[in-house]
Design goal:
P-loop_NTPase, 51% helix, Arc Repressor Mutant, subunit A, two-stranded antiparallel sheet, extended, single chain, Rossmann fold, 5'-3' DNA helicase activity, alpha/beta, 401 residues, 4 domains, 6-stranded parallel β-sheet
């Protein structure tokens, strides 16, 4: 593609002069055939548009630019001159002022502030409340509202085991919802449906190209006496590979396996790895009455991204259909958009198998560096990168260049 910078305007001026010459030398009208075979006269304005469009598109193509002239609209647009534009801008500004006033009225309600925060977070700090009320112009009113939120009888302050304040808060509603989820999860944990378990165990032992750590993970998620099985591991530890093997082993022994993920991209990943029946979590819950899932093995990938409300509904469906549940993810990767944190809580309550060995990097030092970063040991990870000449340090940006 030819690079177009400051010479774009002169090029366009030459194009317009060229188009003007073509138009002046053209007939005042010309004929063209319609689809039905009839003939009609094209008005001068339409002719000019057609010629200008074709020449302009050809010129843009020659320059390697992606731009093209739009077709003439069947529904004419309204011409907006400078005066109307100013009026529209004023209307938008007035509308924004009204929205701002409405917003300020809303955020003066302590319960509304609390609900807006806990829609995205299960626990929060005083700083989160201060951020939510920052648009209130009066500092005294802001501080009073913060105190109203934190002193509400809905708020629960959280403490460490030693009784010291954690400086975090939650609400009674959030705690009750999480308690309900744990209660349902306990019931799921007690319902186990095995299909050919002894042969399945033998199949795992006979796997080739699978590390002992990965075999242990497969035993945990396929042979566990618990209905809720959790698989954790940082990026590159082979979670996806274990889930592929689990799907193949279970389906070969007649077990129905349903794959779920919070995003369409993650669903596509599962499908590309051999999962034949896959849904987004929301799609699965929406279509649950149409899906036969009795005694199925439900595999949830990227489970750390699933929100609390989705977990509550999913667990009810799993419980009612006597399903086994595998939750795979990493609580330190992307969190859910809505209120989350259940994956880590479920891991702590029901236990989990953790994949540690980084398998994505081929060299020992790079695997060690990836492990250091996964453990939040940033300095050690950077030191390894520096020792292997993968990162350069200098005193100034100019020295790096």
């Amino acid at each position: 593609m030819q690079e177009i910078k400051l010479n774009l305007i002169p090029n366009l001026l030459r194009l317009f002069r060229y188009l003007s010459a073509i138009i002046l030398n053209s007939l005042t009208s010309f004929e063209r055939s319609l689809v039905k075979g009839q003939r009609c006269i094209i008005r001068d304005s339409e002719m000019i548009h057609e010629i200008a469009k074709e020449e302009t598109n050809a010129y843009f193509a020659e320059l390697g630019l992606p731009y093209r002239v739009d077709e003439t609209s069947e529904v004419p647009g309204k011409h907006i001159g400078p005066r109307r534009i100013r009026n529209l801008i004023n209307e938008v500004l007035n509308e924004n002022e009204l929205r701002k006033e409405a917003h300020l009225k809303i955020i003066n309600d302590a319960d509304v502030i609390t609900d807006s925060i806990t829609h995205y977070k299960s626990i929060f700090t005083k700083q989160d409340v201060e951020k939510a009320v920052k648009d209130i112009p009066d500092p005294t009113a802001r501080e009073q509202l913060v105190q109203q939120v934190l002193s509400s009888n809905r708020i629960l302050e959280l403490y460490h085991d030693d009784g010291e304040s954690s400086k975090y808060f939650t609400t009674i509603e959030v705690r009750n919802e999480e308690t309900r989820i744990i209660r349902i999860a306990n019931k799921i944990n007690n319902q186990v449906y095995y299909n050919d378990i002894y042969n399945l165990k033998s199949d795992i032992e006979g796997l080739a190209n699978v590390s002992e750590e990965q075999k242990q993970a497969l035993r945990h998620i396929l042979l566990s006496t618990s209905g809720v099985r959790v698989l954790r591991g940082r990026a590159g530890t082979g979670k996806s590979y274990v889930l592929i093997k689990a799907h193949k082993l279970a389906t070969n022994r007649g077990q129905k396996v349903i794959g779920l993920a919070p995003t369409h991209k993650a669903v596509s990943e599962l499908r590309s790895k051999g999962y034949t029946e896959v849904y987004t979590v929301k799609g699965f819950l929406y279509n649950r009455k149409k899906i036969f899932m009795q005694d199925s093995l439900i595999v949830v990938d990227e489970a750390g991204m699933v929100g609390t409300k989705a977990y509550a509904e999913l667990f009810r469906v799993v419980r009612n259909n006597n399903c086994q549940l595998i939750l795979a993810g990493d609580e330190k990767q992307l969190a859910s958009i809505e209120r989350g944190g259940m994956f880590e809580m479920l891991s702590n309550i029901f236990g989990s198998h953790v994949l540690i060995d980084i398998r994505r990097q081929s060299e020992n030092w790079s695997r060690e560096a990836a492990t250091k970063f996964a453990e939040s040991n940033i300095l050690s990870g950077i030191t390894l990168l520096r020792q292997n000449k993968c990162v350069k340090f200098d005193n100034t940006l100019q020295d790096l260049n």
